[in-house]
Specification:
single chain; about 270 residues; alpha+beta; 2 domains; 15 strands; globular
Length: about 270
């Protein structure tokens, strides 16, 4: 399934490459399209239901049915059952004790959360640590995942636990993401792509407000990011430039620009209205 979708996408990219190369006067960005990579992008497809059921059973048995997490259609632990009552809610833990429980669980479930090397996830311990008022329940969040120079957007591993074990484990960590060795759009070219981009956002009363990206709107570090783009029932792992856009005195949006096609694949609003 992955290969067939990949072939289809590669064909589309090749057509786009040829079309844009033949119309350079109409589209000035087409002058950047020098490289075509048939292996890009990596595409994740849903797992067959029978295989998914077997994986869920393996996950449950490995963890003695104590982790109340269900695997999603891609085989990653995702959904939670919040209606859980723990048998020993009164046992307190120090942060170090709780972390060791989380670390052991991650190591044991490496197959399901896509962690091959513990150092990959625990070298910075955790970017978010929380406990309830009496330190009997803890949460650790690890991430983001990195592939070379690229940071994977929205990637994290979350562990929730009590003294006698983990009860939630979720992951958006990925394996074998293909990164193009030669890219068409470097950082400066990606910035040119977003200049003139129209963004419509809605004020508190629901009124639409139009914002046009200018050269002065681009602020802060522009970084390489893998964006998991949902396309119908699959996920395309797009290599992008993550570009921060200034709104007044704060970053209002991040725009993700594909390093191969120059396509704006996602605009993420970073404020609430």
């Amino acid at each position: 399934m992955i290969q067939s979708i990949k072939s289809f996408l590669s064909g589309l990219l090749m057509v786009a490459f040829f079309t844009q190369s033949c119309s350079r006067e109409e589209n000035p960005l087409s002058s950047y399209l020098k490289y075509f990579d048939p292996n890009y992008p990596t595409v994740l497809s849903p797992i067959d239901s029978t295989e998914l059921q077997a994986l869920q059973q393996e996950f449950d048995e490995l963890n003695n049915y104590s982790i109340r997490t269900k695997l999603n259609v891609f085989g990653l632990p995702e959904s939670r059952n919040y209606a859980i009552t723990h048998p020993n809610p009164a046992i307190k833990l120090t942060e170090d004790e709780a972390f060791q429980i989380a670390k052991t669980c991650i190591s044991k479930n490496g197959k399901f959360i896509n962690i091959a090397d513990m150092d990959e996830i625990t070298q910075n311990k955790a970017w978010y640590i929380s406990q309830n008022s009496d330190s009997t329940a803890w949460e650790f969040r690890f991430g983001p995942q990195k592939f070379g120079e690229y940071e994977v957007a929205y990637s994290r591993v979350t562990v929730n636990l009590y003294a006698d074990g983990v009860f939630y484990l979720t992951s958006t960590w990925y394996l074998d993401i293909y990164i193009p060795t030669a890219i068409n759009f470097n950082k400066d070219a990606a910035k040119k792509v977003v200049i003139g981009e129209k963004i419509v956002w809605y004020a508190f009363g629901g009124s639409p407000i139009e914002f046009i990206v200018s050269k002065n709107s681009i602020t802060g570090p522009v970084i390489k990011s893998i964006y998991p783009l949902k396309v119908e029932d699959s996920i395309q792992m797009r290599a992008t430039w993550k570009i921060p856009i200034l709104l007044s005195s704060f970053i209002g949006w991040h725009i993700y620009v594909d390093v191969m096609s120059g396509e704006v694949i996602k605009i993420v609003q970073e404020f609430r209205t």
